[in-house]
Amino acid sequence: MKPGKLAVLGAGHVGPVIARLAIKAGYPVAIATSGDPEDLALITELMIPGAQPRWSRDAMAEADIVVLALPLHRFGEIEPGLLNGKLVVDAMNYWPATEGVLEDFSRGGSSEIVARRLAGSTLIKAFNHIGYHELEDRARPAGAPDRRAAGVAGDDPAAVAAIAELIDQLGYDPVRLETLRAGRVLEPGGPVFGLVLPLDEFERAVRVGARSLA
Amino acid sequence: MTYTFGLDTFGDRNADADGKPLSHAQTIRNVAEEGVFAEQAGVDFFGIGEHHTEYFPMPAGDVVLAAIAARTERIRLGSAVTVLSSDDPVRVYQRYATLNAISGGRAEVILGRGSSIESFPLFGYDLADYEELFEEKATLFAELVKGGPVTWAGKTRAPLIGQDVVPHTESGPLPVWIGVGGNPQSVIRAARLGFSLALAIIGGPPARFAAYSQLFERALERFGRPPLPVMVHSPGHIAVTDEQAKAEFWPRWRDIITLIAPERGFAIPTEESFDAETGPDGALYVGSPETVAQKIAANLRVLGASRFDLKYGMPGLTHEQLMTNIELYGGQVIPRVRELLS
User: What are the b/e assignments for A155-182, b being 16+ CB within 10 Å?
Assistant: First the structure.
């Protein structure tokens, strides 16, 4: 199957890493910030060779999968209608210690709140719980003995399967969580956040974490 | 290439030989002694990073730098870093221009966030405004260091209209750096403002930052600016042998990272992760003078950098251990790195 087109929104710490991994895995990748793609050209040329810098509107329109890798407090600037019908991956975190308190996100799982705002999209939570350095350094091809696991959570099983496939292609053993709510175990303060665990340890940590959520 | 070598501290709270914490006041007096001794040991720069915690009691490093300036002749002195977003750029400029006067032109400023966030609630700033605060204030700071009347308006402080900001510097603009952790857009900003680049590398393989140096060089070209230096800032500890350096540093590193891990999202260090970070591909410079010198030389080459600042110390180390670290860095590491790079 031909890999779908990816749009990465955000060119800070996380966005370029996801873009590089996706390019390596053979995906066509566009990257966008809130600004002019001209300003991104130097960054893409030197740090994300192969990625197309675009206006965010165009990147979203042309993509099959859109990865949100912007700071959560900037999420409100995205026009939800532009993501209608898209498969959207939320790699953002609500992390008051580093970003400050955001009133809109102070109750409930952040991806559930993002999903309510993007009602016309199918939202999946993934790539939020591994630090951006590790995300690149620890990626391994399928079957590697030191391969690590990464979580993927969502309410739509087909969409979860599609992003699980993406995670596998990018270098991690996907661990599926059946709802966005269950994906709260991937959040800051949760049992796998900031860790890069092998599959068995990841599954165990998530099971223990799920009991404390219930 | 001319290389320069610095030492940076966060005012890491000292302990006595029995592990009992010293007072904040004694720790601050010890930092002043360490700065004076750094000059005697042959170090080129001494930097103090702004922090506001019980274990890094160093909110007013410029006052300590002034004390060091009064007792030294040659060593350059600066912040590492100044948390500009929660400060007033005019006051920061005035404090460092004053330090520049006292020291006879030896002051520098490194602007950034560090990875510290405690100054935001302390001074009434919202972390969610971080980007806007830094962008505006760094832009104003670039105007201030040019000298001459400043006209500026923004959202984060009162406007300035033809304002003459004193004291005037007598030896040209202060050297200004921007500390960058891993965000390529911050590298572009440093180039746009004409500030030098300080790469803060505190975890993982340093070589991955080579692309940031290239990005900086290309961005300077694009903005029509002359080349500017790149600095590497990384933590470490030097003792006579690798074993001794690791034995002294590991428990202190483990304790402090474990303490701050929940709010910073760091993984809790293990002996295995510590061995990786202190090895040739890691970010920590812990070991004998030869081990540390080899690693500094290799990374300066790979990163195209002309300056290395060792962030020495860690809460719980003794003043005596830090003085030994400084003596070995100035007396053995720096000459050896120069030799390796010549």
Answer: beeebbebbbebbbbbbbbbbebeebeb
* E strand residue ranges, chain A: 6-9, 29-32, 52-53, 65-68, 87-90, 122-126, 149-154, 173-177
- Strand duo A122-126 + A149-154: pairing: antiparallel
- Tens of pLDDT, residue by residue over A128-166, are 999 888 899 999 999 999 999 999 999 999 999 999 999
Scan residues 83-122 of B and list those with Cβ closer than 8 Å to A: 117, 120
In this structure, what are the phi and psi dihedrals at residue A175, rounded to the nearest 5 degrees? -120, 115
A171 φ/ψ sector (left φ>0, alpha ψ -120 to 50, else beta): left
How many helices (DSSP H) and strands (DSSP E) are in chain B? 12, 12
Strand partners, A90: A68, A125
pLDDT tens-digit map of A40-88: 999 999 999 999 999 999 999 999 999 999 999 999 999 999 999 999 9
Within an 8 Å CB–CB cutoff, is residue B185 touching chain A?
Answer: yes
Please give the pLDDT value at position B314: 97
Instruction: State whether residue B265 is helix, strand or coil.
Output: coil
Say whether A97 and B264 touch across the interface (CB within 8 A): yes
Task: Pick the residue of B135, B185, B273 with the most A CBs within 10 A to test the interface with A by mutation.
Answer: B185
> Measured between beta carbons, which residues in chain B are less than 8 angstroms from residue A46?
211, 214-215, 218
CA atoms within 13 A on the CB side of B41: 25
Residue A214 tokens, joined = 């219930």
Q: Which residues contact B225 (CB under 8 A, 6 or more apart)?
A: B191, B194
Give ipTM to 2 decimals.
0.85
d(Cα B280, Cα A100) in Å, to the nearest integer?
36
Q: Which residues of chain A neighbour B124 with C-beta distances below 8 Å?
A: none
CA distance B202 to B206: 9
Whether A98 contacts chain B with CB within 8 A: yes
All residues of chain B having their beta carbon less than 8 Å from the beta carbon of residue A193 are: 265
Does A43 reach chain B within 8 Å, measured CB to CB?
A: yes
Q: Of the candidates B184, B263, B267, which has its C-beta nearest A195's C-beta?
A: B267
CB pairs under 8 A between A and B: 73
Q: Does residue A169 contact residue A153 with C-beta atoms inside 8 Å? A: no
Question: What percent of chain A is helix, strand and coil (3-state, nearest 5)?
Answer: 45, 15, 40
Q: What is the DSSP string of A32-48?
A: E-SS-HHHHHHHHHHHS
Any bridge partners for residue A9, and if so which? A32, A68
- Nearest Cβ partner of A47 from B130, B215, B264? B215
